[in-house]
Amino acid sequence: MPTPITHVVLVGHCGFDSGPLGRLAQAIAPDAQVVGVNKHDRLAAVAHPQALWLVNRALDGRFNAADGIDLIQQHASADTAPHQMLVSNFPESQAAAEAAGALKGFGKNDVRSPDLTQRLRDTLDQA
Fold this sequence. Notes:
Layout: E1 7-11, H1 15-28, E2 33-37, E3 51-56, H2 68-76, E4 83-87, H3 91-100, E5 103-106, H4 114-126
Parallel strand pairs: 1-2, 1-3, 3-4, 4-5
């Protein structure tokens, strides 16, 4: 049975990227609370199976991780692991994130794409 998403967390994104990502999050999970996190100590509050983390490849903020892929790996195997997707235009980074435990992610160039919105909805329906 799918896990309902109650929180979409924008992890390590700058203010410029947060607006379009927040609108995307509302489109894919209209009933979810959308929050931004830019400090490692705030992740614990949103690290649960009902959360979808949209993790920036190059983290903006203060995190105990080298980059978004490292952060995904740190949280992928926990009992309370959230669903995670990397936000990056680089295919090699996407492959590394998936190998670390993330769902198939997407690039910032795709954020306004109706195809991406539908793909994310389909992904969450199976999560």
